[in-house]
Each structure stands twice: as C-alpha cells, then as structure tokens.
Specification:
The complex is a heterodimer of chains A (272) and B (253). Chain A is mainly alpha-helical. Chain A has one domain. Chain A has 12 helices and no strands. Chain B has a domain of 146 residues: Rossmann fold (3-Layer(aba) Sandwich), CATH 3.40.50. Chain B is 35% helix and 24% strand. Chain B is built from 9 helices and 10 strands. In chain B, the strands form 2 sheets. In chain B, strands 6-7-8-3-9-10 form a 6-stranded mixed sheet, with helices on both faces. A 4-stranded antiparallel sheet of chain B has the order 2-1-4-5, covered by helices on one side. In chain B, helix 5 links the parallel strand 7 and strand 8. The chains are: A mainly alpha (272), B alpha/beta (253).
Chain lengths: 272, 253
C-alpha cells in the first residue's frame, strides 16, 4: 500500500532570508529608493492642486474637502502595494535568480509572504512621507481617518497582494514576456473601481462589475466618510468578503501557473 | 545476504516532451551514493532537461525520478535541503555583495554557523578578497566560483553541476576540479556533472553517461568506453557518438 503524507511546512526563517535579500537590494540603490517616493509625491501634488481649484469653483467639492487627494492616496496604496509585490518578484527574474530559489528549500508560501512584507516596506517608504506632504501642502490629514483608514488599508493591500500573486504566476509561466502585466494590470481597476467618482456614474450594467471588485467598496466608503461624515462598516465587510474570494482565487491560479511552468520548463529560462 | 544500498539518484524511463520536440526520450540510470558521474552530450542532447527534472524544476511527461528516495518533483521538499546545484542558466543577484548573497542562501538552507561556513568556503575557493564586492562587478571566473560556493553552502549530499568550469581559465578550472575531488572525498557526496570538457570528465568521473537526441547512447566507465570505441581520449569517443560512428563492441571483449 502506498501512503502519501501531505504536510504544510512554513519557515519564518526562510521568509526573513528573502526579506533580507530584498532589503539589501533596496538599500544598495538610491534610485530605487527615490523611485518609491517620486511618483506618489507628483500624483499627490497634481490632484491636490486640482482639488484646490475645483473646490473654489464648486459648492459640492468645497464641502467634500480632500475627496480627490484622499482618493489618490488610497489609489496609491492599491497600485504601489501591487507594484511593490511584483517588482520584488521581477527582481528575481531580472537577476536570473529564480532557479536558485526554486531549487532551494524555500516554499511558495514563504516566497509569497516575503513579497507581501516587501510590498508593505516599499509602500511605507513611499507613502508615509507623502501623507505628511499632503498635510503640509493642502492641510489634508489622511491619518485623521483613524480606524477607517485601517479598514481601507487592509482591504486595499489584500487586493494588491491578490493581483500581485496572480501576476507572479503569469511571470513564472510566461517569463519576462508577461512583464508589462506587472506594470499595467492595476490600471484596469482605475476606471472600474471608481477611484475618483461615485459608482452611480457608471452605466448600469458596468456597476455590477464595479461592485464585484473590493476596492470599489473602499473608494465609496472613503467618499461616505469625507462627504457624509459616515463610516460605512458594511461596505468594508463586503470588501473583505470579496477580498477573501479574490485572494483564494489568486493563490489557486498561482499554484496552477507554477505547475504549468514546471511542465513547460520555463522556471530555468526566465526570459520569454 | 548482500543488501544493495539505495541509489542516490534513480531515473526510470524518463521522458520529457514539449509541444514540438522531445527533449528526453525514455532514459534510465541509477547513480550510487558517493559517486561522480559525467553526463555528456552535444547541444540539445537533453542534459540540461535531465538535470532540471532531477532538481524538480521540470515535471517529466512520463517516467520517474527519485533523489535520496524522494520522488521529484512531488516530494522535493523532503530532500531539497540536502541537494544543491550550479548552472550557467542562473545567476546570483548582481547588486548584492558576494557575502550578502551567500548569507541569504545560507539562511534559506538553514546553514549552522553561517559566517564561519562562508569564511571557510571563501578561503577554499579564493573568494575572501571579493566577499564585499557586488556580484555584478566580478569577472566570469569569479562569478562561477561564487556560484560554486553557493552550491556547496549546505554541504549537499547530492550536487548537480552544469558546466561548472565553462568560463574559467585553465588554472582556476583545475583548482575547482581539485576542490570538487576533495569535497567528494570528505563528504561522500554524489555528484552529477554535465560538461563539454572531456579532460574534466576523465579526471573527475568514474562513470560517464553519453546522451544523444534525448536518449542514453552509452553508459560506462571512462576506461571501458575508451576500449569499446578503440579510442585514446573521451573526446574521440564523444565525437564518434555525436557523428554516429559505430562502437567496437568486440574490442571490449
């Protein structure tokens, strides 16, 4: 009789090794550090000034102080969170180091965990200074959202990781030919998740699509908080439920794509 | 009753087919623990695909691979900490220093006394003066030695080497071979070596597997291969196999 034992092993030590590897890389290159903060700052300034201009010409927006700048900061959590995850993964492909890692005792769950940690590290380096710049330039204090900000952040980062995991699977399966997906996939979410406008603006049929994406609930929740001064916990719970489904689907897709990469022999090749 | 020890690597009817080509076509061999075996073959013979399947990086279309008793790739995590490899198809991250790279891999392999092991390997492979230099600023030969150091970090029981001296000058290559000989003698590791350097294979390997078009064309000790093909060097044997000349089986007696 053949008995198969399946057991799940997870080593924090191996996660720490990978975080250490990415940290070494990050601090070895000042352009990499500068890049983390440069674009979020530009975005925040542009939308901040636009907000200032629109507010002075519209009663509605005058009452909704910070709705644009809040949206751009939350959007950056979503976008930069995914990019932070994907760029760390891409670094392995650019360095042709994936074979070394796949041949080591590092488990996929540990690899993904390290990428998640680095996504938060990179996001923190880029975003925290920008939130203080937003206070200095426009008097908009993201931190004053308090617990609502925690709920927004958790939901946005979960979505960004789910997309990052899916993109990592595509990269494993298709090599660097799929690199552009890492940079552009999140922009599909920009119109659909209604970052800068209410869901009601969308055509009726497209609203169903929007409401199936967790960030939509976050951006609607942010508008409810900034315009109506109401924290919509119901929206956050719905977003969390969709995120759980999205995350599970992304992990499933990643494992399938990894198995396919082993079948197609693309793990050693790296390039397309 | 004599009990035959389990092979370190057992390959049975291994096949790898891609959409348009068959890279490996039904090969079988077993490598006894503590042996050094050379895997020879021209470009496209299936050597790298075979090694990739042994490492668990490529899933076979048919057949099985077992390493230290674990079926690859299904049970790979049972044995990956006891294996390692060096290949021209992978690199070390360029911006990290040699020490940083080796430290990360030492931690991944849970190497005890990380600093001591790195210092010892650096001394053995003449890397001490490069330890704090970024990997990207090393010469090709220095990079190969760093990759070799990485492959020896965890003192593997099974070591897979794909062209380990390809970019080295003759002096450094000879030195690396000496190190591999010493490593095998000290640890009893099983080494599978894919190489185009016949002198290297003759010197290091007690057994040679010659592949052609995804099949094992011949498999024996270097001495018996030389006798069978009535040749004086393995290079001539390799050329005979590559060009389809008949072997002289009667010579082998």
């Amino acid at each position: 009789m053949i008995r198969t034992t399946v057991h799940f092993e997870f080593s924090l030590n191996r996660v720490a090794a990978m975080v250490r590897r990415y940290w070494y890389l990050l601090i070895s290159s000042w352009p990499r550090l500068l890049d983390l903060i440069y674009w979020p700052t530009v975005q925040m300034l542009m939308w901040g000034f636009l907000q200032t201009y629109v507010s002075s010409n519209s009663g509605y927006f005058a009452n909704a102080a910070g709705v644009f700048i809040g949206a751009v900061l939350l959007w950056d959590i979503l976008f930069r969170g995914q990019l932070g995850f994907s760029i760390s993964f891409l670094e392995e492909m650019w360095a042709r180091n994936l074979g070394n890692l796949m041949m080591s005792p590092l488990r996929p769950a540990e690899f993904i965990s390290a990428l998640m940690v680095m996504s938060i590290v990179r996001l923190s380096i880029g975003m925290i200074p920008v939130t203080f710049l937003a206070i200095a330039f426009f008097g908009f204090n993201l931190w004053s959202m308090g617990l609502a900000l925690v709920a927004f952040f958790v939901n946005l980062i979960l979505t960004s990781w789910a997309i990052g995991i899916f993109v990592a699977g595509l990269l494993l399966r298709n090599g660097l030919g799929a690199e552009s997906m890492a940079w552009t996939i999140m922009f599909l979410f920009l119109p659909l998740t209604c970052v800068y406008y209410p869901v009601a603006v969308l055509p009726h049929w497209l609203q169903y699509v929007a409401w199936s994406l967790p960030p939509t609930y976050v951006f609607e929740g942010m508008r409810a908080l900034l315009i109506d001064r109401v924290f919509r916990a119901d929206l956050m719970l719905e977003a969390l439920a969709f995120n759980v489904v999205l995350f599970a689907a992304a992990v499933f897709a990643f494992l399938k794509l990894l198995a396919s990469a082993r079948t197609q022999g693309t793990l050693l090749q790296g390039a397309d | 009753m004599d009990v035959k020890p389990a092979p370190a690597i057992a390959v049975d009817n291994l096949v790898k087919r891609y959409k348009t080509a068959t890279a490996v076509d039904g090969i079988s061999f077993q490598l006894a623990a503590g042996t050094v075996t050379g895997l020879l073959g021209g470009n496209g013979a299936g050597k790298t695909t075979t090694i990739a399947m042994i490492m668990g990086l490529v899933t076979p279309t048919a057949g099985t691979v077992a390493v230290l008793g674990a079926h690859m790739p299904r049970q790979r995590y049972r044995v990956l900490h006891r294996m390692n490899f060096e290949s021209p198809y992978v690199d070390m991250p360029m911006r990290l220093t040699v020490r940083q790279n080796l430290s990360v891999f030492a931690q991944l392999y849970a190497v005890p006394d990380e600093a001591g092991r790195i210092a010892s390997l650096a001394a053995d492979l003449d890397l001490t003066e490069f330890l704090d230099r970024p990997a990207g600023k090393l010469s090709a030969g220095q990079k190969t030695r760093v990759s070799l150091a990485k492959s020896l970090l965890n003192k593997p029981d099974v070591l897979l080497l794909d062209e380990p001296t390809a970019s080295l000058d003759p002096d450094t290559a000879d030195w690396v071979r000496t190190h591999l000989e010493r490593y095998r003698a000290e640890t009893g590791a099983t080494i599978l070596l894919a190489s185009h350097n016949m002198n290297e294979v003759e010197r290091l390997c007690e057994r040679v597997i010659i592949m052609k078009k995804g099949r094992v064309e011949d498999d024996d000790t270097p001495a018996r291969l030389l006798a069978r093909y009535s040749r004086e060097t393995l290079e001539d044997v390799f050329l005979d196999v590559a060009r389809g000349r008949d072997r002289q089986d009667e010579v082998a007696g």
